[in-house]
Amino acid sequence: MFRPRLRAPAALGGSTSGSSIISRQSAQSVFAPLSQSVLASPPSCRSLHSMPISRHDPLVGVPNLLSAEGYDLAWTQHMTLMLNRLNQMVTGTDYEDRELKNILIDTARVPSLASIFNHASMAHNTDFFFKQLLPAKSASKTTTPAEIPATLRTAIEDNFGSVETLRREFAAIAQGMFGPGFVWLVKAKDPNPSGRGGDSLRLLTTYLAGSPYPGAHWRRQAVDMNTVGVKPAAAAAPGAEDAHIADAARTWIESQANAARNNSSLPPQSRGMGSPVDKRPPGGVEVLPLLCLNTWEHVWLRDYGLGADGNGGKAAFVEAWWNVIDWEAVCDLASLDRPKLKT
């Protein structure tokens, strides 16, 4: 049962020094009604979900990517808003003490909990994005990318042909996204294209607060609904009276459901009509996220502008992002298998 009583996140209370001052002042100036109501809570109330520890200096930002002001908006202010609102919704429920990843997976397939999913997933994705960026003390003073560990480089070359191809695909996908979201480099269970064994890497897109985790594929939101509209009459069944208003979005969803029901990996008795044994969401894929590119406007608009004149904008942000990726952190998540040697 949900209760209206609020409890203050740690980012808005406690110490009055260093980054805590910046976090609190930023939140109060931009989200004054929300932060004031939270701060009005009794001091004895314990915090629920609080700001994760950041590896970045709020006075510096992310060198070669985000200024201190851009970082304040993309991290401090945004995360404060997401966590404050999440805390409002989960106070008095089982979710108040659970990790963000567990919350988003558990709420992904429940329509009535969509708002909890959105805020938990958005906070988790934002944290994931910033954890894969080089901090100020490690960031290069040049604009060249950090060195990629040998095992990860080999896996990238086996799956994408080259590191440069992966960079270009990231940039092309991000630029092609009409709405905001995330582009993910993930490790999948299926074999890689090289035929030499090793791990399979691929790129996935999630729009808005969609999640790449297998258990949350009900809300992966891999399709930009801005590009899915009315199906042309010629593509509908001949003679159908409502062919001109056939809904392509519904058709896509139904085709995904049919694919899940008729999964060839299932036993024959489990296919077709009836409840399948495979409980994954339609189109669900077993993947492990390794790297995340955040394409939400609040992340890059402050420092890069719209890019209407061909300079700056999202494309410039993505180019700069590639040069500050912490590839060691990516490799640590991957736990890559060494492929067989070429013979």
Automatic annotation (TrEMBL):
<feature type="compositionally biased region" description="Polar residues">
    <location>
        <begin position="259"/>
        <end position="268"/>
    </location>
</feature>
<feature type="compositionally biased region" description="Low complexity">
    <location>
        <begin position="10"/>
        <end position="20"/>
    </location>
</feature>
<feature type="domain" description="Manganese/iron superoxide dismutase C-terminal">
    <location>
        <begin position="151"/>
        <end position="190"/>
    </location>
</feature>
<dbReference type="InterPro" id="IPR036324">
    <property type="entry name" value="Mn/Fe_SOD_N_sf"/>
</dbReference>
<feature type="region of interest" description="Disordered">
    <location>
        <begin position="259"/>
        <end position="280"/>
    </location>
</feature>
<feature type="region of interest" description="Disordered">
    <location>
        <begin position="1"/>
        <end position="20"/>
    </location>
</feature>
<dbReference type="InterPro" id="IPR019832">
    <property type="entry name" value="Mn/Fe_SOD_C"/>
</dbReference>
<dbReference type="InterPro" id="IPR036314">
    <property type="entry name" value="SOD_C_sf"/>
</dbReference>
<comment type="function">
    <text>Component of the mitochondrial ribosome (mitoribosome), a dedicated translation machinery responsible for the synthesis of mitochondrial genome-encoded proteins, including at least some of the essential transmembrane subunits of the mitochondrial respiratory chain. The mitoribosomes are attached to the mitochondrial inner membrane and translation products are cotranslationally integrated into the membrane.</text>
</comment>
<feature type="domain" description="Manganese/iron superoxide dismutase C-terminal">
    <location>
        <begin position="286"/>
        <end position="330"/>
    </location>
</feature>
<protein>
    <recommendedName>
        <fullName>Manganese/iron superoxide dismutase C-terminal domain-containing protein</fullName>
    </recommendedName>
</protein>
<dbReference type="Pfam" id="PF02777">
    <property type="entry name" value="Sod_Fe_C"/>
</dbReference>
